[in-house]
Amino acid sequence: MACVLLCRLILLSVLAVFSQGKRLGPTSLLRYSRFLDPSHAVFLRWDFDYEAEIITFELQVQTTGWVGLGITNRYTFVGSDLVVGGVLPDGNVYFSDQHLLDEDSLEPDGSQDAELLKLTEDSVSTTMRFSRPFRSCDPHDRDITSDTMRVLAAYGLDDIPKMNPERTFVKSIFLLQMLQYDDQDAPEDTIIHDLAISNFLIPEDDTTYACTFLPLPIVSKKHHIYKFEPLLVERNETMVHHILVYACGNASVLPTGIGECYGSDPAFSLCSHVIAGWAVGGLSYQFPDDVGISIGTPLDPQWIRLEVHYSNFQNLPGIHDTSGMRLYYTSHLRKYDMGVLQLGISVFPIHFIPPGAEAFLSYGLCKTEKFEEMNGAPVPDIYVYSYLIHTHLAGRSQQAVQYRNGTQVQIICKDYSYDFNLQETRDLPHPAVIKPGDELLIECNYQTLDRDSMTFGGASTINEMCLVFFFYYPRINISSCLGYPDIIYVTNELGEEASENPMENLMVLNNVEWTPENIKKAEKACKESQQTVLIKTIDEEVENTTGWIPDIIPTPRGPCLESSGGKVEPGDKTPAGFRAAPMVLSGSNTATLRHVPLVTILFLQGTVSWLLPMLQTGV
């Protein structure tokens, strides 16, 4: 009996050890990966626990010297955080949480907030795996957020950490991507359908929007598109800025061939309901398991407009392209039909940004109170599960904010560190519920210090946009909801004589002396002016309403995670971390930190194997 009680106590201890959460360890599979350098010598894997707010990195570099990984910003390396580690020739390891004092000098942080999980070296490469909190309490550590993160990697050829520009790399990555689908469980009857522009000669112009109209797959019953990915010609990748697929109404009379989307023939700008999109830096995208784009019913589109935006800034001649979008579809239907709602500022010159602005905020308002009338049927709550944000070169940050009955509900999505070269569809951690009558506000922040003339809204890369695409379910008959300011009010507030013709007011604004004071005055006037809101259905019907820009309440920074120090010096046996863990040596050139010592794990595994039979028999 005493043995049974003892065995049960031991077994409870064993189970307690193995039930301490789903924290990623030294050998856990990490879901995400990227090369960080052009020669593919620096490879990063990572994963995270969103609830516990812990992220795990594994950096593998082709060197037998030191390696480092951290977060920087778009302007300077100074102040960047960098976790540094390596294996000495005698097999001892070193590891510490540091920051850059200047462009090439490192200093250990006062608080060590990275926990070493694995550090190995062979004759070719060094691999370092560690965990850190999203938000540490150390001011030298940069927060891991849902923004675009500029990941900094560096390494040396010896074990003396010192920055070298030739071995330092920065890559923009959205680290907190949420996978809402089972990528291993593709439907057996998956069919692929390519939508591509055909052997198009790219003009020798800075910007070209090429459009063509193509049929969607012809099916005898309802199917769902569940994934899309870009089709890019390898040698032309740097010239393709974005690819959009617009659904056409079945009553539309469509042109043939390839034409300029927004040129002299307005037929090539028909169809404005986006159903799929890719932009520079993005990858393929698969919808959540219960959502798909419906095709094959009388309500579904039969044709699409394919839009490819080319940026040929070097004016290269004689380049042909066959870019487009690949669709994956199946007869295994999902629970919901997907819709896309375009929000932001109407894309035309009333949207303006002054030159020389350190920061200039623009706003586009959407009021959903007319959705039911335009939808032709009651509008249910819609669930936004992912988004794509879009500005051009002057964009620095963007956010989408939800209001209900005049009160801010939440910031649905944001990127305070926007990178024009990384535009991708991003999943929300939890769907955002939009109810009829809610208001949605898009805020874009621009910087034009490098410009000496006005920037206007428009299609060209040197013009600007402020757009957010919400991917949602269930689908309704609304394609876009865009706002723009009262330009007459703005002109008057700047002390200029306003005209009833909006375009004449833009000419007036072009002649304003854009001092810092006038830039702030223009920003304030744009926010305080009445907004016109244009709502468009999938069938191209348009209604408008008006509204006012509400204030945005910033989301406060969450609590930080205290640290007890995670630095590892050569010869250390029990380094501490923000979750203390002992160190186990396994090989002369390997040191691994585990939540449970390896010997303990082996003992516990053996204990369980002989305890269970004893408990079952009552011995």
Folded structure, characterized:
The protein is mainly beta. It folds into 3 domains: 32-173, Cellobiose dehydrogenase, cytochrome domain (Immunoglobulin-like); 187-337, Jelly Rolls (Sandwich); 342-485 and 542-553, Sandwich (Jelly Rolls), CATH 2.60.120.230. It is built from 6 helices and 39 strands. The protein has a 7-stranded antiparallel beta sheet with strand order 1-2-3-9-8-39-38, with no helix packed on it. α3 packs antiparallel against α5 (516-528). The radius of gyration is 28 Å and the shape is globular.
Q: What is this structure's SSE topology?
A:
Layout: H1 2-18, E1 32-35, E2 42-49, E3 54-61, E4 67-72, E5 81-87, E6 93-100, E7 106-108, E8 115-121, E9 126-133, E10 149-155, E11 168-173, E12 191-196, E13 200-201, E14 207-215, E15 223-231, E16 240-247, E17 258-260, E18 273-279, E19 285-286, E20 291-295, E21 303-311, E22 320-321, E23 324-330, E24 336-337, E25 339-345, E26 352-353, E27 360-367, H2 371-375, E28 382-390, E29 395-404, E30 407-415, E31 426-434, E32 439-446, E33 455-456, E34 467-473, E35 478-484, H3 487-493, H4 502-509, H5 516-528, E36 531-537, E37 542-547, E38 583-585, E39 590-593, H6 598-617
Parallel strand pairs: 20-24, 25-35
Antiparallel strand pairs: 1-2, 2-3, 3-9, 4-5, 4-10, 5-6, 6-7, 8-9, 8-39, 10-11, 12-23, 13-22, 14-17, 14-21, 15-19, 15-20, 15-23, 16-18, 16-21, 25-34, 26-33, 27-32, 28-31, 28-34, 29-30, 29-32, 35-36, 36-37, 38-39
Family: Belongs to the copper type II ascorbate-dependent monooxygenase family.
Organism: Cricetulus griseus (Chinese hamster)
Cofactor: Cu(2+)
